[in-house]
C-alpha cells in the first residue's frame, strides 16, 4: 500500500477511535492542566490554537486561561476560497463566532494574523507517533502552517490516538511535543536523524 492510501486508512480508523474516547471533557481538562505547566506555554507571548470541533481535544479553557494571563491568541480560519488564514481573538465568547468551512468555528470579525506573529502553535491531531509525526484531516493545512512559521508545535491528543508509526512524506512537519491526558510525551529522535551516527 502506498503512503497516501495508508494515511487514508489510518485517518478513518483514528477518527473512529477518537470518537470512542470516553469522558473527553475530563481528559481535555487534564490536558489543559498539563499545558498550563509547560515552560513553553508560560514563556509564550502569543499562541495559535484551534477551536475544537467533533471529538477533538477541547481548547476553550486553555484559550481562556491564556487570555487571562495576558497572552495574545490567534485562531485558524479557513476562508471561502479554501485557504488557511488566521485571526486574533480578544475573548472566547461563543456569540463572537460563526461556522466556517468544514464545520470549524471562526470569528465573526477577522483581525488578520500572519505566521511568525505567534511563538507557540497547538495542533489538533487524529493520530501521532513518538517521533512527533502526526496525521490530521488530510488537507495539509497544518503541514503548510508549520512549514511557514518558526513556531514551537505542540500536539493535543488523547492517549488512545498514539500509533506505533505514522507514515510520513517529505512535506510532513514533526511536532515538538505531544500533550495527552497522561502528561507530556517526549519526542524521540528519528532514526534518520544524524544523532544516531554520532
Ligand atoms: N478545530 C479545528 N480547526 C481547524 C482545523 C482542524 O483540524 N480542527 N484545521 C486543520 O486543518 C483547519 C480546517 N480544516 C479542516 C479540514 C477538514 C475537516 C474535516 O474533514 N472535518 C470533518 C468533520 C470532523 C468532525 O466532525 O470530527 C468533515 O467535514 O467531515 C475539518 C477541518 C483549520 N481549523
Ligand atoms: N507544505 C505543503 N505544500 C503543498 N502541499 C502540501 C503541503 N503539505 C501538505 N500538502 C498536501 O496536502 C495533502 C495532505 O497532506 P497530509 O496527508 O500530510 O495531511 P495531514 O497532515 O493529515 O493534514 P493536515 O495538515 O491538514 O492536518 C497532501 O496531498 C499533500 O501533498
TrEMBL record:
Keyword Endoplasmic reticulum attached: no
Record's catalysed reaction(s): (6S)-5-formyl-5,6,7,8-tetrahydrofolate + ATP = (6R)-5,10-methenyltetrahydrofolate + ADP + phosphate
Binding locations of ATP: 7-11, 134-142
Alphabetical list of Pfam families matching this protein: 5-FTHF_cyc-lig
Gene Ontology biological process terms, A to Z: folic acid-containing compound biosynthetic process; tetrahydrofolate interconversion
E.C. code: 6.3.3.2
Gene3D superfamilies in the cross-refs: NagB/RpiA/CoA transferase-like
Binding, substrate: 51, 56
Classification via InterPro entries: FTHF_cligase (IPR002698), FTHF_cligase-like_sf (IPR024185), NagB/RpiA_transferase-like (IPR037171)
Molecular functions (GO terms): 5-formyltetrahydrofolate cyclo-ligase activity; ATP binding; metal ion binding
Keywords, alphabetical: ATP-binding, Magnesium, Metal-binding, Nucleotide-binding
Swiss-Prot/TrEMBL cofactor(s): Mg(2+)
Record bears the keyword Secreted: no
Source organism, top-level taxon: Bacteria
Record-linked PANTHER family: 5-FORMYLTETRAHYDROFOLATE CYCLO-LIGASE, ATPASE INHIBITOR/5-FORMYLTETRAHYDROFOLATE CYCLO-LIGASE
Family: Belongs to the 5-formyltetrahydrofolate cyclo-ligase family.
NCBIfam families reported in the protein's UniProt record: MTHFS_bact
Full protein name: 5-formyltetrahydrofolate cyclo-ligase
Organism of origin: Oscillochloris trichoides DG-6
Amino acid at each position: 500500500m502506498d503512503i497516501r492510501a495508508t494515511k487514508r486508512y489510518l485517518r478513518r480508523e483514528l477518527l473512529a477511535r477518537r470518537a470512542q474516547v470516553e469522558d473527553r471533557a475530563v481528559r481535555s481538562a487534564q490536558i489543559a492542566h498539563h499545558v498550563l505547566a509547560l515552560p513553553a506555554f508560560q514563556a509564550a507571548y502569543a499562541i495559535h490554537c484551534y477551536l475544537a470541533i467533533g471529538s477533538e481535544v477541547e481548547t476553550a479553557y486553555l484559550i481562556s486561561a491564556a487570555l487571562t494571563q495576558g497572552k495574545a491568541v490567534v485562531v485558524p480560519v479557513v476562508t471561502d476560497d479554501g485557504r488557511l488564514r488566521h485571526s486574533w481573538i480578544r475573548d472566547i465568547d461563543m456569540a463572537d463566532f460563526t461556522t466556517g468551512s468544514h464545520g470549524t468555528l471562526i470569528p465573526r470579525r477577522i483581525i488578520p494574523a500572519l505566521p511568525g506573529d505567534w511563538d507557540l502553535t497547538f495542533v489538533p491531531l487524529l493520530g501521532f507517533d513518538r517521533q512527533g509525526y502526526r496525521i490530521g484531516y488530510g488537507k495539509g493545512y497544518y503541514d503548510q502552517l508549520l512549514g511557514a512559521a518558526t513556531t514551537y508545535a505542540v500536539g493535543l491528543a488523547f492517549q488512545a490516538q498514539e500509533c506505533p508509526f505514522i507514515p510520513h512524506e517529505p512535506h510532513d512537519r514533526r511536532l515538538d511535543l505531544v500533550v495527552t491526558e497522561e502528561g507530556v510525551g517526549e519526542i524521540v529522535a528519528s532514526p534518520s536523524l544524524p544523532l544516531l551516527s554520532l
